[in-house]
């Protein structure tokens, strides 16, 4: 398992060092905005805030409410694209 | 029966073993090269690679990584993906939370009633505000001026023309009237270019001068002027014509830049020739009504015309030049040259006051103070029918000559 974790660590390091992680992040953000995911999530946020009251909303509240729904709402095409890119990166740079 | 079944089972077992062995071999092979991918579509038998449980979608490019180690890699891929998605969600949360705390999160919302009022409409035939957009297409309006029924989209331009109040309406009306004048006149001499130039320039001047008067009243004085000119006695009016020409700024209706010499008596011809160029145009057989210094015709032509019309004894060219001219008949070329030089010297200056100096086109007269020159320039250009560009081009030399004169004086 330590091999495994070492491998993970190296891969993560490579990902960050080569700027691939940032690129992937930007790509994901752009795609999510494009497909309307962001607006959907914002609408959901509005509901949550109305529920909890405008004054007393905390970041934690939002995170707890938003993240699971967010994960679920990502469209398949976006997911596929990202997975493909990550795999490509790994196949290129894994030992 | 039993033996058959047993045989079958035995065969199956053997085949299974063979299959498992081949699977192991293949796995071993693929284990060494991670980038090895089976082309799915071309595989002859069933895929022998283990498919990871986490990903059921199989495309050419999305082939999951194979082998036992590779499931770990696949898991890693998914972990990385989840991390990225979580990052995005967190970013959104921060954004929203900040907007809430800063107070601008709900800015695009108002009370429920207004929201409902301005909701986006999504019906056919209607835009998103709920308005019908081609409502006025088929409607017709009655023009208050001409009482005709005009289509709604054409109503505004029609009104412009009809009432004579638009940008181009006066221009078009003038053109129409001018063409009518042309048709009706029988003896109008139209030296084309000159006339067109006249029109351009004089129209511009007229527009400026008569800006404040309404178009309707503008039309009638014009008509009366043009009528006067048409019907008036040419003989009588010729003497005063240069003045008339300048004061009325040679309006578009004055196409009569030529006079037929056949209809005039000798006295008339003489008076005409004393004030005007008089050169007979080849195209129209009419005399040029421009001034003595008309740039279109040379002095030779003028002299020839005078000889032709009045006989060789009395060529009547005005003042200082007449002396020179008559001398030139008898005296050798030197003086003729001199006289011509004098003519050519002053073309820049003289045109400016041809109107005011119809009888006496003196060089000394031409050296007038600036003010007079400018006004006379304006008048003259109307009389001459020079194009604007020409006037501008000449202005400079005039001014410079003036300067030189002033310096010399």
UniProtKB/TrEMBL annotation, chain A:
Pfam families the UniProt entry points to: EnY2
Localisation per UniProt entry: Nucleus, Nucleoplasm
GO cellular component, one term: transcription export complex 2
Alphabetized UniProt keyword annotations: Activator, Chromatin regulator, mRNA transport, Nucleus, Protein transport, Transcription, Transcription regulation, Translocation, Transport
Example of a GO MF term: transcription coactivator activity
GO BP of this protein: chromatin organization; mRNA export from nucleus; protein transport; transcription elongation by RNA polymerase II
Superkingdom of source: Eukaryota
Job of this protein: Involved in mRNA export coupled transcription activation by association with both the TREX-2 and the SAGA complexes. The transcription regulatory histone acetylation (HAT) complex SAGA is a multiprotein complex that activates transcription by remodeling chromatin and mediating histone acetylation and deubiquitination. Within the SAGA complex, participates in a subcomplex that specifically deubiquitinates histones. The SAGA complex is recruited to specific gene promoters by activators, where it is required for transcription.
Stated family: Belongs to the ENY2 family.
Quaternary structure (record): Component of the nuclear pore complex (NPC)-associated TREX-2 complex (transcription and export complex 2). Component of the SAGA transcription coactivator-HAT complex. Within the SAGA complex, participates in a subcomplex of SAGA called the DUB module (deubiquitination module). Component of the nuclear pore complex (NPC)-associated TREX-2 complex (transcription and export complex 2). Component of the SAGA transcription coactivator-HAT complex. Within the SAGA complex, participates to a subcomplex of SAGA called the DUB module (deubiquitination module).
Protein name per the record: Transcription and mRNA export factor ENY2
Organism: Scophthalmus maximus (Turbot)
Upper lineage: Eukaryota, Metazoa, Chordata, Craniata, Vertebrata
Gene symbol of the encoding locus: ENY2
UniProtKB/TrEMBL annotation, chain B:
Ranges in a coiled coil: none
Gene from which the chain derives: ATXN7L3
Family membership noted in the UniProt record: Belongs to the SGF11 family.
Keywords associated with the record: Activator, Chromatin regulator, Metal-binding, Nucleus, Transcription, Transcription regulation, Zinc, Zinc-finger
Subunit structure: Component of some SAGA transcription coactivator-HAT complexes. Within the SAGA complex, participates to a subcomplex of SAGA called the DUB module (deubiquitination module).
Biased composition, class Polar residues, residue ranges: 173-185, 349-363
Function: Component of the transcription regulatory histone acetylation (HAT) complex SAGA, a multiprotein complex that activates transcription by remodeling chromatin and mediating histone acetylation and deubiquitination. Within the SAGA complex, participates in a subcomplex that specifically deubiquitinates histone H2B. The SAGA complex is recruited to specific gene promoters by activators, where it is required for transcription.
Domain of life: Eukaryota
Biased segments, Acidic residues type: 189-198
Gene Ontology CC terms, in alphabetical order: DUBm complex; SAGA complex
Entry protein name: Ataxin-7-like protein 3
SCA7 domain ranges (all copies): 264-331
């Amino acid at each position: 398992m330590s091999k495994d974790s070492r491998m993970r660590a190296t891969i993560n390091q490579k990902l960050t060092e080569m700027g691939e992680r940032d690129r992937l992040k930007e790509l994901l953000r752009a795609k999510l905005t494009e497909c309307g995911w962001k607006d959907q999530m914002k609408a959901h946020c509005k509901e949550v805030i109305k529920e909890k009251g405008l004054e007393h909303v905390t970041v934690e509240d939002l995170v707890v409410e938003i993240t699971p729904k967010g994960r679920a709402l990502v469209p398949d095409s976006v997911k596929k694209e990202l997975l493909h890119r990550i795999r490509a990166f790994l196949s290129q740079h894994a030992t | 029966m039993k033996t058959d079944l047993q045989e079958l089972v035995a065969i199956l077992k053997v085949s299974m073993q063979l299959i498992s062995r081949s699977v192991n071999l293949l796995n071993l092979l693929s284990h060494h090269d991670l980038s090895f991918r089976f082309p799915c579509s071309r595989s002859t038998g069933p895929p022998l690679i283990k498919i990871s449980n986490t990903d059921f979608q199989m495309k050419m490019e999305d082939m999951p990584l194979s082998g036992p180690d590779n499931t770990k890699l696949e898991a890693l891929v998914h972990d990385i993906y989840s991390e990225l998605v979580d990052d995005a969600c967190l970013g959104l949360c921060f954004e929203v939370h900040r907007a809430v705390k800063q107070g601008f999160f709900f800015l695009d919302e108002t009370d429920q009633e207004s929201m409902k009022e301005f909701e986006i409409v999504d019906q056919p035939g209607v835009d998103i505000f709920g308005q019908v957009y081609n409502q006025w297409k088929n409607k017709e309006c009655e023009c208050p001026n001409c009482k005709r029924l005009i289509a709604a989209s054409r109503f505004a331009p029609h009104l412009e023309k009809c009432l004579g109040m638009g940008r181009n309406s006066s221009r078009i009306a003038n053109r129409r009237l001018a063409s009518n004048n042309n048709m009706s006149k029988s003896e109008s001499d139209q030296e084309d270019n000159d006339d067109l130039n006249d029109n351009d320039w004089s129209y511009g001047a007229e527009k400026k001068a008569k800006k404040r008067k309404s178009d309707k009243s503008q039309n009638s004085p014009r008509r009366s002027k043009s009528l006067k000119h048409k019907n008036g006695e040419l003989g009588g009016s010729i003497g005063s014509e240069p003045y008339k020409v300048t004061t009325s700024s040679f309006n578009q209706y004055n196409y009569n830049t030529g006079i037929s010499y056949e209809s005039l008596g000798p006295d008339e011809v003489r008076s005409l020739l004393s004030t005007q160029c008089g050169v007979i145009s080849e195209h129209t057989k009419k005399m040029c009504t421009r001034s003595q210094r008309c740039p279109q015709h040379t002095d030779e032509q003028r002299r020839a015309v005078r000889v032709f019309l009045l006989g060789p004894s009395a060529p009547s060219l005005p003042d200082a030049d007449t002396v020179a001219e008559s001398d030139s008949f008898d005296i050798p070329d030197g003086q003729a040259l001199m006289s011509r030089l004098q003519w050519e010297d002053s073309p820049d200056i003289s045109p400016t006051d041809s109107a005011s100096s119809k009888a006496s086109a003196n060089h000394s007269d031409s050296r007038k103070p600036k003010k007079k020159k400018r006004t006379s320039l304006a008048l003259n250009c109307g009389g001459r029918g020079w194009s604007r560009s020409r006037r501008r081009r000449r202005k400079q030399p005039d001014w410079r000559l003036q300067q030189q004169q002033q310096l010399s004086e």
